[in-house]
Amino acid sequence: MFATLLFVLMFALTSGNARRCQLGFTNLGRGCYLFSHNHATYAEANSFCLFFGSHLADITSKNEDDLIRSYVLRNGKGSQFYIGATDLRAEGIWTWEHPLRKVVGYTNWYPGEPNNHEGKEHCMVIHYGHRFKWNDAYCYTKARFICEQSRI
Ligand SMILES: [Ca+2]
Ligand SMILES: [Ca+2]
Question: 123 vs 2, 63, 81, 97, CA distance in Å?
Fold first, then answer.
């Protein structure tokens, strides 16, 4: 099954139209995104995205944020998704991981977040209960996640 998936993926990679996204990824605006159906910790989600030639999504503009939020609201297959920022390196200093840079400029934290609840929240999620605005959450919760890839 996994071998078949890999074969299909390789085929999609080599025969893909330049304007389309890799198999499994959805085109929104200028990006390609994979909205996972499986649940993983932050570290597992990060590895999954990298394995498929992508990275956990970094959301750097209102336009990109609106596209992703409206997609998950419409498609509603999960309540919580990891995206690609943490403050694991230094508490309270949020960084997008790919490429590594501080979360500055556009932000969309839910009111009261990030709150580093119990001193244990270091990974960014978007949650249905927060209208998919940003929250800091535990990194080891099994949650869905969003990978992002440049167009191929
Ligand atoms: Ca934190
Ligand atoms: Ca929080």
Answer: 29, 22, 11, 11
Can you give the pLDDT at residue 16? 44
Which of the ligands is closest to the CA of residue 125? 2
CA 135/CA 48 separation, integer angstroms: 21
The Cα–Cα gap between 17 and 22 comes to 9
- The domains located in the chain, with CATH, are 22-149 (3.10.100.10)
Cis amide leading into 99 (omega within 30)? yes
- The encoded tokens of residue 32 equal 């390609």
Closest-lying ligand to the alpha carbon of 121? 1
When pLDDT is cut at 50, 70 and 90, the band that residue 51 belongs to is: very high
Q: How far is the CA of 128 from the centre of ligand 2 (A)?
A: 14
Report d(CA 85, CA 16) in Å as an integer.
Answer: 30
CA 151 – ligand 2 centroid, Å: 32
The 3-state DSSP class for residue 91 equals: coil
Question: Do residues 81 and 35 touch, judged by C-beta distance below 8 A?
Answer: yes
